[in-house]
Amino acid sequence: MRVNRHFMRLTQEVMGADITPDLSQGTCTMKYSPKVQEHTAARNENLVDVHPLQDVSTIQGILEIYKKTEEMVCEISGMDAFNFHAGGGAAACYEGACVVRAYHKSRGDEKRDEIITTIFSHPCDAGAPATAGYKVITLMPNEDGVPDLEAMKAALSERTAAIFITNPEDTGIFNPRIKEYVDAAHEVGALCYYDQANVNGIMGITRAKEVGFDIIHYNLHKTFSSPHGGMGPGCGALGVREFLKPFLPVPRVEKDQEKYYLDYDCPESIGKIRTFMGNAHVVLRTYMWIKQMGAEGIREAAICSVLNNQYLMKKVSKIKGVEIYYAPGKRRIEQCRYSWNKLKEDTGFGTVDVTKRLIDFGMQHYWQSHHPHIVPEPFTLEPTESYSKDDLDEYVAILTEISRECYEEPEVIRSAPHNAPIHAILADEVDDYDKIAVTWRQWQKRIQAGTMKDA
């Protein structure tokens, strides 16, 4: 009984979507995951007892789900083939960088060693190509929040292997001239990679193919409704046009006249990037979600997510101390990056202070921003299509109250959080390598070496 009480208490301390509106995690698309998917993925013995080392003839159902999911996301994106091996968006981005290299190598064009991205694209759009050995050129935004087209053209050259771009970017700003960027890259022989981590507000409305992109990735765990709190599990689905299909990782799921099979006979493939076939249960949830939603449902979800964000943005922008940088008055798509910089100037309290106090109201702490913080004292909110007007109003009321406390009751903010099982976690302490050991073995080694400081 004591063990049961312990774990029941822990569940009550978790701030997940089943307990509180989880719109705090901007860029994470924390939408509702239908429970029927969870029961099927976690409890159906025909699925949970399957092992990837079984004979292919005994896993025809799983392979059929993989193939039909590929066909559906091809239709949604306009791409010609997909691969579901990567465990997340950054892994898919790395996979894409490897495909870019293999493509140029196959053409004898190995001098292309540069990737161009933008500062408000996801950091993996710079980090993954860099890990793959590319030099990365990062473009800064103009007053509208997107890089100037002429700056993009100036950066392009015969050394450009590809551009890696997120659109809408993490600010929520959609670049309406994106096709001109793509056309400019193609003119110098570069490929175009579309990071569609922020696709939730445009899915079913626009397609990557019509814009001209050659490679894309979806985060299935985000856009297609699979729980991913605590940083997993995920699936980065890499999609390509027909001419890049030979370079995708192996094995590929194919079908002959009688059965599905795993095809390893792909001589130009970049090889394997992960064991087995990736996170099959995420692919299963994606299959179920698309089937349940249908084409009209997917489009409606996108429209609702944009509507929710417009309403939330209008309300949050009126809170004392909140600012919105870039393109004043311009609508954002599915999320918005705000700033507490004015609050910081007025009261000395910034975004970290606000998010710690947010926990006291039973809300998940919010996502601030990827690094570097180009927008000062940032916080990023993404309401998705899952939350009601009442949910949004409640969240705005809490932020409004915290703002008031910053101006009128500073000690309440200074000593927050008050209702959490763990008090304030100091970011500087967490980032101090001399005070932190993330595993028991590391801690033991550091103690023995005498390099561990008191926290």
Account of the 3D structure:
This protein is an alpha/beta fold and 455 residues long. It folds into 2 domains: 163 residues, Aspartate Aminotransferase, domain 1, CATH 3.90.1150; 258 residues, Type I PLP-dependent aspartate aminotransferase-like (Major domain) (Aspartate Aminotransferase, domain 2, 3-Layer(aba) Sandwich), CATH 3.40.640. Helix content is 41%, strand content 12%. It contains 17 helices and 11 strands. The strands form 3 sheets. It has a 7-stranded mixed beta sheet with strand order 1-7-6-5-4-2-3, with helices on both faces. The protein has a two-stranded antiparallel sheet with strand order 8-9. Helix 2 runs antiparallel to helix 11, helix 4 packs parallel to helix 11 and helix 11 packs across helix 14. The longest helix is centred in the middle third of the chain and has 37 residues. The radius of gyration is 23 Å and the shape is globular. The relative contact order is 0.14. The model has no long low-confidence stretch (mean pLDDT 91).
What's the gist of this structure?
With 455 residues, this protein is α/β, with parallel strands linked by helices. The chain has two domains: 2-28 and 295-430, Aspartate Aminotransferase, domain 1 (Alpha-Beta Complex), CATH 3.90.1150; 35-292, Type I PLP-dependent aspartate aminotransferase-like (Major domain) (Aspartate Aminotransferase, domain 2), CATH 3.40.640.10. Helices cover 41% and strands 12% of the residues.
